[in-house]
Automatic annotation (TrEMBL):
It comes from Pundamilia nyererei. This is Protein YIPF. It is found in: Golgi apparatus membrane; Golgi apparatus, cis-Golgi network membrane. Keywords: Membrane, Transmembrane, Transmembrane helix. The chain crosses the membrane at residues 118-139, 159-183, 195-217, 223-245, 257-279. Pfam families: Yip1. Belongs to the YIP1 family.
Amino acid sequence: MASKNDPFQFQEFDEAGDLLEANRDATTISIDDEDVKPKQSTATGFSTEADTEDPLANDDQAELLSGQKKSPSFWSFEYYQRFFDIETHHVKERIIGSMMPWPRKNFINVYLRRNPDLYGPFWICTTLVFATAISGNISNFLAHQGDRDYKYTPEFRKVTIAATIIFSYAWLVPLAVWGFLLWRNNKMVNLVSYAFMEIVCVYGYSLSIYIPAVVLWILPFNWLSWCTIVVALCLSGSVLVLTFWPAVRDDHPRVMIAFLSVIVLLNILLAVGCKTYFFTIPGNKTVKPTNSTT
C-alpha cells in the first residue's frame, strides 16, 4: 500500500464538487475523448475557420492523396517549367555522357531516365550559336591580318544565320525522328518508343562536342579544322546511333539502315555546312584604278 504522504498519489478535492454544483450548465471536456472538441457558436454572417480554408489548397491536397495529380496543359507555362528544374550535376553528367559514347549504353536509359530537360539543350544551342558566329568573325580577321587593303567589318548577320541553322536542327530533326518512330510503332509491335522531349534532349546534348571544335576552327590550320570535324562527327554521331538503335533494331533491315543513315547524314551536313559557310575565307577583291587619258 502506498503511504499517505506519497505526493504522487491521486487525491480527490472537495472544491471540484462544489464548483460543479454551483455551475451545472457549464461545458465540461473529458480527457478521454481526444477527438471531440467544443464547438463554438458564431454570430450570424461570420464563417468558421473550416469555411475560410482555401478551396484550391483542398483540391491540391485531394489530388495528392488520390495520386491523380492533373498534368498541366501543353500550351501552359507550367508544362515547360518542369523541364528546367534540374540539378547542375545532372547537366554535367549528361554533357560528359554525350561526349563519351560507349557500346550498349543508351543515352536516354542511362542519363535521362525518363526525366528529360530543356535547360541543357537550350544553353548548349545558344552557346554554340555565339561560338560559331564569333569564331567565324575572328577567323576571318586573322586570315586578313597584315593586309592593308582589307577593312574588317563585323558580320552580325552570322548570329542570326547560326541561330536559325542550329535551333532548326535541334528541334525540326527531333520532330521528324519522333514522327517516324511513332509511325513505325503503329506499323509494328514491340518497338521501343521515345517521347518527343527525350529526343530533343538527346539532340541538344549531342551538339555539346561542337563547341570546343568550333573554337579550334579559329586557328589558321585547315588540317586541324577537318580533324576536329571528324572527331566531333564520330562522337556526336555515335551517341545518336547508339540511342536510336534499340528503337529500330527489330524493324526491317532496310528501314533500320535508312533511318540511321539519315541521322548520320544530317549530322554531317550540319558540321560541314557550318565549317564551309562560317569559316571559309572570302577572296580579297581589289579594284585597280583606271588611268583616264584625254
